[in-house]
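Q: Joint fold for the lines below.
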Amino acid sequence: MHEINFWISVVATIAFAVTGVLAIADRGVDIFGVMVLGVITAIGGGTIRDIILGVPSFWSETQMYVWLALAASIATFVAESFFTQPQIHRTMLYIDGFGAALFGIAGLDKAWNLNFGLPVAPVILGVVTAIGGGLLRDVLAGRKTLLMSHELYAIPVTLGCCLYGLVLQFFPQYTVQASVICIAIIFGIRVAAIHWDLRVPKLFITQTR
Amino acid sequence: MHEINFWISVVATIAFAVTGVLAIADRGVDIFGVMVLGVITAIGGGTIRDIILGVPSFWSETQMYVWLALAASIATFVAESFFTQPQIHRTMLYIDGFGAALFGIAGLDKAWNLNFGLPVAPVILGVVTAIGGGLLRDVLAGRKTLLMSHELYAIPVTLGCCLYGLVLQFFPQYTVQASVICIAIIFGIRVAAIHWDLRVPKLFITQTR
Amino acid sequence: MHEINFWISVVATIAFAVTGVLAIADRGVDIFGVMVLGVITAIGGGTIRDIILGVPSFWSETQMYVWLALAASIATFVAESFFTQPQIHRTMLYIDGFGAALFGIAGLDKAWNLNFGLPVAPVILGVVTAIGGGLLRDVLAGRKTLLMSHELYAIPVTLGCCLYGLVLQFFPQYTVQASVICIAIIFGIRVAAIHWDLRVPKLFITQTR
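A: Joint structure:
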């Protein structure tokens, strides 16, 4: 289990960095900006979570995540034409969606195990872990954040984290099963959203006056 | 006194969330963005203050604030046409101004009681408590922040916090009276600014070249 | 040595505030925005570093930095026409470059001495100390951040910090010499970049599609 978790988070970190760089590549970013923004996309959410939790940033203890994100960002810059192929880009988006699911649930778990403001705060911090890095990247790159884009990204993460929080609160004996199921739910909705290009229906959007 | 404080901060949290959502509603935000940005407007400033203070975020201990902000944000989304009526919107702005006054002074108090960098740091953290949430919302929503808008919002808060800090430093025996008076000053200037649409005079604005 | 360090950081704080204000002056900022953004430019990077380190913000202990930045910001506002003279502005940019070099190396030192995630995290925090304040200012002012501007600013800082980190890791006996040399390297590249208006070559920029 631990072994699996490790490899999943390796793959997810790489996917976060790659999709993070691809999201901003069309704005003409230099290699340094690519490295910084790729790393921020990959480790930014967990950093905000750890700051709010008052614990040392996870990457100060496991530096591998910085190196992975850095290498993935540089590789994306060098092989931009490879990664921007529609099929490859889409595959990265799927892995990125899986990463968001995993990081969200893992972030919630970390806060829950630290007994931080149960039960509401861990759910918030799970969502922050999954989307915080992307928000930081978009703000620093002058890009519309996903809070304004009507994408189905943060919504499945939030649904899955709420569900997982409910199970931890009321049925703690099913923690392991719930984590797998909630990751599957988040990933499933995200895959559907990418595949059919689903967005938030107009009914749930404020009217532009 | 404690009782009053509690109810004031309940009302102020709701007002922050409502005005926070109204500020971005014209940009076409979905219900999820509304919830996130409403909550961030309401609790973001206090969160930054607590991070700088190195204490757990206030909402991890009193989760009610999250629920209040969430409920107020959703209500604003659902009843958008109600809240955007000029008279109601204006009333919310007044309550929001009162909330900013209260949160600013309360934030200063918290830092002061923790003996954090007296006397300058508490004044800064009071201002951060009052305006930080709105700044985060504007940045995440891609909106001009109030630092650039020439509104009389942060200025009265800062004046009131400076005055309150001076009293705490030199006349600590008048703390209670000073807090009431400083809240009144901030709120009074803010009411005048809303009522007469006062802005920072041109003399105090850098010349656009 | 300690004496010199003190005076250098005084001058650097002032230069950060002045160049910070000049960078946004053309957007029509009021005196309050000038004060806030000037102070944030000067102390924001160190604040983010201290938050990630989990130590009290440096300005809560040495409040002088806040006063210096505040005074420099107000002076820049009042004497805008003086500071915007090409020769003066350029001089301030040179001092600012020196400040970035100094703050980067000093920030790295602080993290290293706290044993925070050696050897990678201190290098990251050195860079954050040098450029974090400018990033915050640009985001709050709605300005393109330097990560997107192809300027040679963050790059020399990062090179110098990496080099210094390598020396601290492998040749700790040369710490003092290395700090002077790395500051000189950062400053030298920055001076060259300002003087000849050097930018990141096109080869190292993603293609805008």
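Q: Anything notable?
A: Chain A has one domain: 2-199. The two ends of chain A are 51 Å apart (CA to CA).
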